[in-house]
Amino acid sequence: MLEEREPPRGPDPRQGQDARGAQNRVNIRSGGSTTISGGAVVAGGDVTIIQKARQWAFANPLLAGGLAVFVLSGSIWTGVSLGSDPAVDVSVVEEPGLPGALHTVEQTRLAERLGDAASWCHLVQPGDSSCETTMNSAFAAKSQSYRDRVEEVGLGEPEKIDSGAQVALSWQGSSQGTARLVQAGGRWQLNTSDYGLLKLCGAGLFLSLVDAKSQELKCGMLQLPTS
Q: Which of 5, 76, 180, 213 has the fewest Cβ atoms surrounding its Cβ within 10 A?
């Protein structure tokens, strides 16, 4: 007597669905197999993740396209973000002549805006072992928006003087003294006495001008009008 068998059932359409009815999902279990698209299993290297991901992308072109755009947009945004804020170039101290002096002052301003104490000290006074500690505290005490104001300080053309070179500083067209540089060991750096004054005040070359404008600090010759 033949035993009646129940006819085979087709795939349950509810299989692989979650509470929201999504039919495609990826489940990764620690130490176990990987289930992709409600059934395919990656185990023992028989089927690769790349193959299944490719199959999933063909089966879900809209989702895959949206994901690609999202990733690409993130990459582009990151590149723009990084590119808009360059690192300090400390090699400018070795540039000869007045251009080297000007570039050293420009990079000093950038170091203050970025709060990069290590680069600032290398540019301004590399022989002072306590410089970085002092300037780290000075920069950390200022917000980023406050340090951004160093860009408001204008720079004049470098001029040759007996001790080396000087670059005029200005605020809205008004003269604010000069940054004096000397050459030591074949490189440019800030005049030692000017550096000593800045260190005593706990301020950067450009931040001291912003401090004076904000009536927070007046540091020797570097003073901005209070009006």
A: 5
